[in-house]
Amino acid sequence: MADAQVTAQERSTLSRIAADADVSTSTVSKVLNGRAGVSEATRARVEDLLHQHGYQRRGLRDPAALIELVFANFSTVWALEILRGVQTAAAARGLGVVVTESGDHRAPGPEWMDGVLQRNPIGVVLVLSGVTRSQRQQLQARGIPVVIVDPAGNPAPGVASVGSANWNGGLSATRHLLQLGHRRIGIIGGPVDMICSRARLAGYRSALEEAGVPVCEELILAGDFERDSGLRQAQRLLALPDPPTAIFACNDLMALGVYEAARLAGLTIPDDLSVIGYDDLNVAEWTGPPLTTVRQPLLEMGRQAAQMVLSLDETGPAPRVDLATDLIIRQSTGPAPS
Amino acid sequence: MADAQVTAQERSTLSRIAADADVSTSTVSKVLNGRAGVSEATRARVEDLLHQHGYQRRGLRDPAALIELVFANFSTVWALEILRGVQTAAAARGLGVVVTESGDHRAPGPEWMDGVLQRNPIGVVLVLSGVTRSQRQQLQARGIPVVIVDPAGNPAPGVASVGSANWNGGLSATRHLLQLGHRRIGIIGGPVDMICSRARLAGYRSALEEAGVPVCEELILAGDFERDSGLRQAQRLLALPDPPTAIFACNDLMALGVYEAARLAGLTIPDDLSVIGYDDLNVAEWTGPPLTTVRQPLLEMGRQAAQMVLSLDETGPAPRVDLATDLIIRQSTGPAPS
């Protein structure tokens, strides 16, 4: 039935590709539909030719009513919020969401790609993960669009993506502490090679400059977005001869590490030390005292990514959308000790 | 192509059903495959007849290489661990996992059922959710097996399920506190209508009896598995004339509430109060001090459920598997104050 939808022009393109690759058209069709029984070398040759001919259409079959969603990893509730957003948008259109944890930030593995070609989804959403060049070509050849949910701010060039406004988030967190009278504000940033870390730190610097407060390099440390680095770096900050009265941890997990450092040092939050996080994971609400933090609109980012992948015009430039963050004031920030 | 696989016998069953329902066989086939264009009343009539005739086969099509996974809700990292387990088992067989959050503990909604009939998965795994009678019949008629991941211990009769050993978990948590010399041990249980709550509480009672420590009813309170109920009930326990020296919170979220109650009362954990949780969510590790807890093997439960749904013999009795829990000793429990 689906074969009937192949136009005469496509048929001729596929015949030419089959001739160039020295294989049958049924082999080309196997490659397009991700079926078995084709050697790796032949598959690669056919994929190359499909790409050279700019072959792009919805495979030889109707797409399945599915969106593919890939997470590099599921380690925090972070992932659930995005999943919930994608699923809400998909369900509204009667689509199922196939979820995979790839375990690799660079790209999902070849088994995933095999599965995708067989499932033939309407689109692919990747979270904190890229795709390889060859995967992009394979998806493009079948007209399967890709959108990256990329709060880290480092999307591959030419790929549509959804992120959030990290610089603004860093700015508003720091402004909040300045308004409470803090002047010695420590910051524990994320990994220095991530754009989101740099953007949040730049927002911190801008807020201090705006308020005429000098930036002290000794108050600026980098973590790795894990709790333990928050603990370790907070201990370094608290051991300074003139320690900060407030610490901005660039994610909530590191803020939990700051809590632990304060507890071990016998300091009370917020009386002795104000702490602000970033993300608004649900643990932020559950800690004692509940954490003031910058909320990333993760659910909304997931929803936006699903909508984008369903409406993507692949002939135009790849869109990038950054959603706004919110400052959520709870009980971990208070006036600077006088 | 798939139609060719319909046997002569099935064809005659389907013709008879069509005749009884006073519709065409193509309408029966539409109902089986979840296609549109059939009125609700006709659909219900045909489903009833399919059930009466004991019609059961893989629909009229080959099943898709998919497992359907439904969560009543995604609210904690809990869900991620189970998802990870299901996905690992599915990926090992080249299957995709379609994930849905239904928002309802009783059963997923009718839109989900429509999607499932169209997608025609190999099997369905439900987490903390049931299915309606009519959904079960519809799935059975198509030979789509169902397994429930049910740590709450309340599976619908006749449905295969995977859980964990709640009574043993309650026993080992309480034994641990007894070994540390605690005699006044409070417990904040889960909702009283959940079997898992009753099993953990029974484990607590058994451990006390085993140690010859009297059970005091004033030390037994019920929560609702949310953090705030842990806070509230811990405050009641700590306000007793002879307050407990240890509290067993029957999940980790309520244990976080106990932490907050201790902080507000100026008590240090574990010097003034020992706290033990249940689940081993990753927040358990992140709190200060890190939480001693009973680990539920969520990942393993997900994996087991996926394997079960792929190998289920629907003619035999519905299997039930309970996996063992582990006591994870961290820093929130210590010797009873003398």
What's the quick description here?
The structure is a homodimer. By secondary structure, chain A is α/β, with parallel strands linked by helices.
Description:
2 copies of one chain form a homodimer. In chain A, the strands form 2 sheets. Chain A has a 6-stranded parallel sheet with strand order 2-1-3-4-5-11, with helices on both faces. With 338 residues, the first copy, chain A, is of the alpha/beta class. The longest helix of chain A has 16 residues, at 77-92. In chain A, helix 1 crosses helix 3 (40-52). Chain A has 3 domains: 8-53, 434 Repressor (Amino-terminal Domain) (Orthogonal Bundle); 64-164 and 299-323, Rossmann fold; 166-297, 3-Layer(aba) Sandwich (Rossmann fold), CATH 3.40.50.2300. The mean pLDDT of chain A is 89. Chain A starts with 7 loop residues before the first helix and ends in a 10-residue tail after the last strand. The first copy, chain A, is elongated, with a radius of gyration of 24 Å. Chain A is built from 12 helices and 12 strands. The A-B interface holds A 64-66, 68, 74-77, 79-80, 83-84, 87, 91, 94-101, 111, 114-115, 118-119, 227, 253, 256, 259-260, 263-264, 282-283, 285-289 and B 64-66, 68, 74-77, 79-80, 83-84, 87, 91, 94-101, 111, 114-115, 118-119, 227, 253, 256, 259-260, 263-264, 282-283, 285-289.
